[in-house]
Design goal:
Elements (H helix, E strand, L loop, with lengths): L4 H11 L4 H11 L4 H14 L5 H12 L3 H18 L2 H19 L1
Helix pairs in contact: 1-2, 2-3, 3-4, 4-5, 4-6, 5-6
Length: about 110
């Protein structure tokens, strides 16, 4: 029997549940099939691994697609602040651009 990507990601998570990348990869994979599970994983990342910068772009976009405006704004702003704190200019600019696009769509 062939393992699916989700099966592999779950195995990696079981091996090391404290690695934020494993949780992040699962959250992204669950976006395709189980948004509630994805939401729980994003919330876990934001709570337990607040310095894991990759979370912010996808988590904010996730909440934006659910039209959870305040939550999306909070996450974008927190991600931008974290990227600034960490000196990560490219992720910071990507978050700023995504946030601007999000705000522009709200105005339409």
């Amino acid at each position: 029997m062939e393992n699916t990507l989700l099966d592999n990601l779950l195995a990696f998570y079981r091996e090391d549940p404290q690695d934020p990348f494993n949780i992040y990869a699962l959250a992204l994979e669950y976006l395709k099939s189980d948004p509630n599970e994805s939401r729980q994983l994003f919330e876990q990342l934001l709570k337990d691994f607040p310095d894991y910068l990759p979370t912010y772009y996808h988590a904010a976009n996730f909440y934006a697609t659910l039209e959870k405006i305040e939550e999306a704004e909070r996450i974008y702003e927190a991600g931008i602040a974290l990227a600034e704190k960490l000196g990560q200019q490219k992720p910071k600019q990507e978050l700023i651009n995504a946030y601007r696009n999000f705000l522009d769509e709200l105005e339409d």
